[in-house]
Design goal:
This protein has 476 residues and is an alpha/beta fold. The chain has 3 domains: 144 residues, no CATH class; 126 residues, NAD(P)-binding Rossmann-like Domain (Rossmann fold, 3-Layer(aba) Sandwich), CATH 3.40.50; 190 residues, no CATH class. Helices cover 51% and strands 11% of the residues. The chain has 16 helices and 11 strands. The strands form 3 sheets. It has a 7-stranded mixed β-sheet with strand order 3-2-1-4-5-7-6, with helices on both faces. About 1% of the residues have low confidence.
Amino acid sequence: MQRRLRLAYLLSDTLASALAWTAFFLFRKLTIAPIATDLPISTQIFSDTHYWIGLPLVVACWIAFYVLMGTYRDVLHKSRLKELIETLVSTLIGCILLFFALIIDDTITSYRSYYAAFLFLFAAQFILVYIPRLFITSHTVHRVHSRRLGFPTLLIGSGPRALQTYLGIENQEVYSGNLFLGYVQPTADSVPHPSPLESIMPCLGTVEDIPTLIEQYQLQEVIIALDDDQQHFTSSILIPLLSEGKLIIKLNPSGQPFPLNFIHQQSIFHSPLLTISPRTMPEWQYSIKRIADISLSLLAMLVLSPVYLITALIVKFTSPGPILYAQERIGLHGKPFRMHKFRSMYVDAEQSGPALASDDDPRITPFGRFMRKVRLDELPQFYNVLRGTMSLVGPRPERQFYIDQIVRIAPEYRLLHRVKPGITSWGQVKYGYASTVDQMVERLRYDLLYLDNMTLLTDLKILIYTIIIVVEGRGK
């Protein structure tokens, strides 16, 4: 269903953008740059090479821009108000860009022609794009409200509040689309039996079974509704759910307050549930972040190619062994990947098992000590960034061996798996390398701050401070 809807939006936007460009080209022919000829205006347009060159180019730019803005990402949860705002904003920004790219060089008799051209372009693009979108979105919303389309939902909780939450959702005037497949208990012995939900939906196990249930039932939403005496389970339930990074999570606001600043009230007319989005930044910022990752990584690998070569030669001739070192780390959504570095330790440095490096670690080669100080050993990770397993900025990835130890002390570490790991991070800038698990936990607070304040501006600041640390050789 999601794929068909994306295709419908994509096709309608493509056709609408082509029609808007045609209408705008006609407007320019008639008002801005009229040609003294007896040929019909349609002939003037369709025989103009500028029209045919601009048509696929402009349409492709609009579609790319809509993808950048996240228009086609979560099409099942669109609302008409959200559609209106998103279309207005994206059309305004896109028209400003097109204006400076296409219109600013037109020969005009008055600056009013610029204003007229911009307003016509904006009106044509907005109206022609928004009307089909409104129709598609309204059709989808109608199907949800009429219970012909729903979102597979799991209810966490089995007591009176869970029943109250379920009944509140099912009996609300406007159906929210939550298709309840069953409920789970916080623990096997967390509530007395029987549960008031047993006659309504099946019990699918406990919260420990949720990862399996996500795959088995293709869950899209989870609703947490715990009784007051179960509120202490909330954090231990939220952390693994958030690390999955795929689910929309909703909570019953009754009970203890929640300290996470990415929880917000989303709906006015539906049941008053607090919503946690699986994304930590707006979609357009994610798109720009990925574009920046690719472009800056390519630039860095090109500009620093002599540094790569010299570093590789020194590593090769100063200690026996391979130039590069690949190690399995845990990345986005807890998935393992191979992270690459210039080898800074002697071969078989961990033959006795995993061990963190210390300041005077004898396993580190003399040149390796210098590389770690100025971050030269991290340069091959630009390849990881290009592959998409890492980002330029993000929490540093760790090995599963140490993650298992960290989560015993700080379970919130798993929240870092909501985002891609990075070459540099807030924790790396403020704290540096960690040589013990306790130091990893101490560094964690900076990475959690990054997660709560994740923006493109924050990334830029971290990159600037990283460059300063590298230049000054203050790496720890």
